[in-house]
Amino acid sequence: MSTDTPEDVTPEDVTPVEENLTPEEELQAATPDAPEAEPVAEGTAESDLPELTLGDGAPAEVEELVAPSVVRGKIDRFGVAMGTGRRKTAVARVRIKDGNGEFVVNGKPFEEFFCVERDRKMVQEALEVTGMRDKVDIWVRVNGGGTTGQTGSVVLGVARALQVKDPSLHHVLATGGFLTRDDRMVERKKYGRRKARRSFQFSKR
């Protein structure tokens, strides 16, 4: 059995080794060349899946759902706007027409019927907010309840009549809370009680 000795190897059989090569260059020399990728024709997509893009394009339009405004009142054939307001057991029927600011409640001037300054401000607040204080004449007929109930009913009736007269005032009146009915009522009396919840005085002896 014969073995080759270093003398039998010729210089042509030895692969020349390049000196002073970096590790990256040695790796490239050791790996075979990869086949070149075929060029993709213009206008054709590499895959059929749609590309996902983040932050591109116009934002999606969101439709705002606006509830239709409910009009509680009517206008008669003479152009007079009418609205009805309720608070506790009081009911106020309001009529508004174009004028110079006259305000009559149950046949009396506004200042004479509402003696409390707080009640006057509450009734006039809707007119002040809409700027209609000196542009309309108001006639009110209110009955039932007490002072607080009648004041609240007149406020609601005036606001509803203004909304019927000029629908563009709906947003201002709704934002101020003038079109919302205060549905609080007196709680009924219960048997065995002095009032709705008040007990009779306890007697120890």
Describe the overall structure.
By secondary structure, this protein is of the alpha+beta class. A 6-stranded mixed beta sheet has the order 1-2-3-6-4-5. Strand 2 and strand 3 form a beta hairpin. Helix 3 packs parallel to helix 4. The longest helix has 19 residues. It starts with about 20 loop residues before the first helix and ends in a 30-residue tail after the last helix. The mean pLDDT is about 80.
List the helices and strands and how they pair.
Elements: H1 23-30, E1 74-75, E2 81-87, E3 90-98, E4 103-105, E5 108-109, H2 110-113, H3 117-130, E6 136-143, H4 147-165, H5 170-175
Helical run tally: 5
Helix content: 10-25%
Q: Note the run of SSEs as H and E.
A: HEEEEEHHEHH
State mean pLDDT (0 to 100 scale): 82
Strand content: 15-25%
Total DSSP E strands? 6
Which strands sit side by side, in order, in the main sheet?
1-2-3-6-4-5
Structural class: alpha+beta
Could you say which overall geometry the principal axes of the C-alpha atoms support? elongated
Low-pLDDT segments = none
Rg on CA atoms, Å: 45 Å
Distance between the termini: 135 Å
Largest sheet: 6 strands, mixed
Short key terms for the protein model shown above:
5 helices, six-stranded mixed sheet, alpha+beta, 205 residues, elongated
Give a quick summary of the entry.
With 205 residues, the protein is an alpha+beta fold. Helices cover 25% and strands 15% of the residues. A hairpin with a 5-residue loop joins strand 1 (74-75) and strand 2.
